[in-house]
């Protein structure tokens, strides 16, 4: 009887223990780990040096002296070097009439290079993939690109596929958010994310300056990655996702229209980058930081910032202060060791660096990525990560803040934790003579070769053969 009563009295404790253990097990399976990633590096015959870039511009029939001067200024100030990559059709002189087959072939080259290498290096079989997310913003085809990957690698019938279009340069973190959501509801999952952009059908051949700019900035690139919430694979992973925040300003007309695919006055399709883009990006970035700061910064820094804000506000109310009075600045370095910034252009990097109070060392990975690979759209942040890894900056326990901007207008950010020391052994940056970075100068040779255009007169100008 005593034994029975003892058993009976312990049932509530056992039930509580069961709930606690079940909660801990569920939390353990909800973690999102990056097992590995593979960047895309096209062959050297796809590079865009100064000489060839000039040839591409000169054969554009719709450009005049004003457009040449604009392009010269844009390219020289872009921060892009001579070793970025372009689609095959540019080298074949077919920018004005690319085919659908050209666009698909561009994607197939990406898939073969990144997915094939990634699966081989990780030992993951295509049949192990439970979730597949593909984000290519400016190419929609039937069957979808995700279906093409399923067919090519013969994935399982029950694989869950997501094909994202139109999400812009911030699409990588949108894809991550999808994977993270799946991981919270299902245990022992393996996910693959493929991120890139299709430049082939979107090369602008008109003379609208707001659309020509995209030809100067965007370059070929891409990345495939494998993520998992399997506890058994945690020791093999390289990063753990701690938090992710998405900000969308699509309800603001100015933000919505500053970065949009449209037609020019002649009916030529292009990608419009408006003058309000910097303002839209700043607003989205500020709102995103307001949400992500409490998630990634230590309490002491939040308290310091809060107290300082209150004190300055009281002083401001107590006496008249000049409009340019000092505002409290939050120190993001208190909770972040590395900053993985979107390489949208030199101006974008400079603005983010100024907003976060970053040093040249902090922004070096972003600047070097822009210089070597250009703006590869949604995959650009992964080239920045690759630079950090190749430079052996990432050590166990380090915190890495990743931020990207995209059409919509969107600003997405996330915080990673480095799971183990990363050596960057199999990294495309090692094929780029990483020991030579950063170079002594980032000056673009375009100005030296084509600077004479600035002195030309529109009445007498004639493009030399």
Distance between the termini: 105 Å
Q: Rg from C-alpha positions?
A: 25 Å
The helix content is 40-55%
Low-confidence stretches: none
E-strand count: 11
Layout of helices and strands:
Elements: H1 2-29, E1 32-39, H2 50-58, H3 65-76, H4 88-91, H5 100-122, E2 131-136, H6 145-153, E3 160-164, H7 171-185, E4 190-196, H8 209-217, E5 222-228, E6 239-248, H9 253-257, E7 259-263, E8 269-273, H10 277-296, H11 299-318, E9 338-341, H12 346-356, H13 360-373, H14 380-390, E10 399-406, E11 410-418, H15 446-450
Parallel strand pairs: 2-3, 2-4, 9-10
Antiparallel strand pairs: 1-5, 1-6, 4-5, 6-11, 7-8, 10-11
Helix pairs in contact: 3-8, 13-14
Question: What does this entry look like structurally?
Answer:
This protein is of the alpha/beta class and about 475 residues long. Helices cover about 40% and strands about 15% of the residues. It contains 15 helices and 11 strands. The strands form 2 sheets. A 9-stranded mixed beta sheet has the order 3-2-4-5-1-6-11-10-9, with helices on both faces. The protein has a two-stranded antiparallel ribbon with strand order 7-8. The radius of gyration is 25 Å and the shape is globular.
